[in-house]
Design brief:
It contains one helix and eight strands. By secondary structure, it is mainly beta. The chain has one domain (2-64). The two termini are 13 Å apart. This is Glutathione synthase.
């Protein structure tokens, strides 16, 4: 699987108080098989069940607080 890393600083607080990080659909595909992982204190990744929203050609990963992590996805051509 391919992945895209993101950092705490990439999150933006939305009007509902959640934090979200944005990806372009063209960079990670349609998003049907996305896996969100957060980096823990031991620098290891753990899987989260984060909310994923889609709007136009953008995909948003939402969580209650910013974190360093990555999105795993199937590579596409």
């Amino acid at each position: 699987m391919a992945h895209k890393n993101f950092r705490k600083e990439d999150f933006v607080k939305d009007s509902s108080g959640q934090y979200q990080v944005e990806f372009r659909k063209g960079n990670i595909g349609e998003g049907s098989d996305l896996i969100v992982e957060r980096k823990n204190e031991k620098e290891e990744y753990e899987i989260l069940q984060a909310e994923i929203k889609r709007h136009d050609d953008r995909i948003f990963v939402c969580w209650s607080e910013p974190f360093d992590g990555r999105v795993l996805f199937d590579e596409f051509h």
